[in-house]
């Protein structure tokens, strides 16, 4: 079976969607599926990606494909359609799986439908979710909204990676029988089995052995709620001072500055994003997430996620797989997978006092931490790629009638 994963964005950019597409391709390949990733990159860029050790096939698409869609460039869109048509004629894909219904992902479904080839889509967040007060979501643009709605309806099936994404599909008028509940995957066993030296890792990072490490992973984006972290820290520090809140992500300088202004700068660290293992072989360069990042998860004490909005929140599952107790919000994409007091401590979005109380509870109650960790380590097994990839293959075969 030949499957084309159509990715509007892909490596070397590393975000949640890119990580999922990459690992889906790897796991499909390991199951004997002839998988291709088609993405807006030049042939030279694709060659560079391949040379970094990717075992699956990556194909180039006209680099301006996403921009042509965004600018309603009819000639550009027609060129993209022509290239998609040629790829289908050459490779005869059994199924197209559109990852993120924006840019080329919004152009493709109608054409693939005309070619009488099955097409599936997965929305990963910004292509379908909106948050008007922070200007988040492509659908806030009426033209994009129309195109995205149309593209989703042109697909044979739409994968809902969470209850929140399913609700968005239903809101857009997609019939329930076209929606398939299928979560993102995670290499749970890799997280569980990686052994780390806590003393050496903490020494390397400059983390005091006698302090609680509160960890948050991901880029600073308005929907992530990072702006609330200094206020949460201030409330925690009124009760305890034996902690450091570590943010592993880009663009966190403003958060550190705000913490300094509030007099709690000594409780926060933002060393940047850990994306790959230094000194690793080229073949392992795109082992994602990196062992270095997993080591930091496993050497923290608490995972905190003050987010306003998620589609799936892969970082929550990475933390759970690492054996970290989680303090989260009830944001879409988080509330779908957490039960308060059972798999996480859950506060309302934007409730800094509630988040601070939950973190203090996790710091003070070892039995609660153990309870949450035990439940999470059981729950995450349902999201292991070994299971999730089989569900994808079953869906591909169903729509392709194979």
Share in helix: 40-55%
Order of helices and strands: EHEHEHHEHEHEHEHHEHEHEHEHEEHHH
- Main beta sheet, described? 7 strands, parallel
Radius of gyration: 21 Å
| Total number of beta strands | 13
Instruction: Briefly note the CATH topology name of the largest domain.
Output: Rossmann fold
Domain unit count = 2
Mean pLDDT across all amino acids: 94
| Secondary structure category | alpha/beta
Question: What's the CATH superfamily of the largest domain, by name?
Answer: Glycogen Phosphorylase B
Strand order within the widest beta sheet: 3-2-1-4-5-6-7
Question: How many H/I helical runs?
Answer: 16
Shape, please? globular
Uncertain regions: pLDDT < 50 for 5+ in a row? 279-283
User: According to CATH, what is the class of the largest domain?
Assistant: Alpha Beta
**How much of the residues is beta strand, in percent?**
5-15%
Distance between the termini: 9 Å
């Amino acid at each position: 079976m030949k499957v084309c994963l159509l990715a509007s964005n892909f490596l070397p950019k590393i975000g949640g969607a890119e990580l999922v597409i990459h690992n889906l391709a790897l796991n499909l390949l390991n199951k004997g599926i002839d998988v291709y990733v088609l993405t807006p990159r030049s042939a030279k860029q694709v060659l560079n990606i391949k040379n970094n050790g990717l075992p699956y096939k990556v194909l180039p698409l006209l680099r301006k494909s996403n921009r042509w869609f965004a600018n309603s460039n009819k000639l550009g869109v027609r060129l993209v359609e022509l290239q998609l048509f040629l790829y289908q004629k050459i490779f005869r894909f059994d199924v197209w799986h559109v990852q993120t219904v924006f840019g080329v992902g919004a152009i493709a479904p109608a054409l693939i439908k005309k070619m009488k080839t099955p097409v599936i889509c997965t929305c990963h967040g910004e292509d379908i979710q909106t948050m008007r007060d922070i200007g988040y979501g492509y659908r806030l643009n009426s033209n994009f909204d129309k195109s995205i709605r149309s593209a989703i309806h042109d697909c044979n099936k739409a994968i809902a990676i969470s209850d929140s994404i399913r609700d968005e599909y239903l809101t857009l008028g997609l019939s329930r029988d076209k929606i398939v509940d299928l979560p993102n995957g995670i290499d749970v066993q890799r997280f569980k089995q990686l052994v780390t030296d806590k003393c050496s890792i903490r020494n390397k990072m400059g983390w005091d052995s006698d302090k609680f490490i509160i960890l948050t992973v991901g880029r600073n984006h308005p929907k992530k709620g990072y702006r609330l972290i200094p206020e949460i820290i201030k409330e925690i520090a009124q009760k305890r001072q034996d902690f450091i809140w570590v943010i592993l992500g880009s663009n966190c300088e403003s958060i550190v500055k705000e913490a300094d202004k509030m007099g709690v700068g000594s409780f926060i660290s933002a060393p940047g994003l850990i994306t790959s293992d230094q000194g690793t072989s080229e073949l392992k360069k795109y082992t994602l997430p990196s062992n270095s990042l997993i080591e930091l998860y496993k050497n923290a004490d608490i995972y905190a996620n003050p987010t306003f909005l998620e589609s799936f929140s892969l970082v929550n599952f990475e933390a759970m797989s690492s054996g970290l107790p989680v303090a989260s919000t009830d944001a879409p994409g988080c509330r779908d997978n957490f039960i308060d007091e059972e798999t996480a401590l859950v506060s309302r979005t934007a409730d800094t006092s509630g988040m601070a109380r939950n973190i203090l509870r996790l710091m003070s109650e070892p039995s609660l931490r153990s309870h949450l960790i035990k439940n999470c380590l059981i729950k995450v097994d349902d999201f292991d790629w070994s299971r999730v990839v089989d569900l994808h293959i079953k869906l591909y075969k169903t729509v392709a009638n194979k």
